[in-house]
Amino acid sequence: MWLDIHFEKPFKESLSLYDLQARSLLNIGKSKIAVALLEQVVKIKETTLAEDHPSRLASQHVLADAYKGNGQVKKAVSLLEQVIKIQEITLAEDHPDRLASQYTFANVYEANDRLLSQHVLACVYEANGHVKEAVTLLEQVVKIRETTLAKDHPDRLTSQQALANTYKANGQVKKAVTLLEQVVKIEETTLAEDHPNRLASQHALDYVYKANGQIKEAIALLEQVIKIRETTLTEDHPDRLVSQHALANAYEANGQVKEAVALLEQVVKIKRFKFQKGHPSRVVSEDWLSYLSEQT
């Protein structure tokens, strides 16, 4: 049972209880609920207490901690900068509260930068053929982000998608399918159907479906992606052309050669207008169309 704050009756004498409750929520990993509660507490204190009041600063500090735990790093940084700015004016350099705020501020930056660096390093590993090292590193990043960020947090989803792609490159196709299905499922409930991140994840899932022999699932997903891209992107947009080419490949793998040829004819027509003769993208589509035309 948790307490509720009603803004119509903001009893100042009860705020210490709410502070305590929020800290308890943080301790058991319920950062999202703690953030919601602390935002109410801080809002009240910011309207009733001076900006350098110890209680107000303490609650702001805890809220910044909660933001950090919830993956809202920018909000954590912004709030801590305010707190530290005030404490630098009102508190001695060695005051415990001032030092605590500076320490938390450093941790927020460090935690975010470390995970970002690890994510980038994993991508470098994969690009250089060190796929196993990339898998190990991304598994660490994902493990941390799954315990500190909400399921629909963009950073968490980005790392999960990167790990899934690396699983595929490492031959762990079933793991890639499972992880990408999770990502797509979440994004389909939180992002608009034409959101670039959602479409990119669906496209990535298409590739692992094909690698796993799930051709029918790949076709269904790509047809959905293309339907959206045909209404939101120009006919010569690279993303739209990539999706159409990929769908033609899936059609061929499913024995639908006529459908593959018809779609590739559209793609090649556009690429011949868009790209010079000999352009790699144009050549790939032309060669594939030539091959499939011989099969019909």
From TrEMBL:
Gene source species: Sclerotinia nivalis
Entry keywords, A to Z: Repeat, TPR repeat
Protein name listed in UniProt: Kinesin light chain
Gene3D superfamilies: Tetratricopeptide repeat domain
Pfam families, sorted: TPR_12 (PF13424)
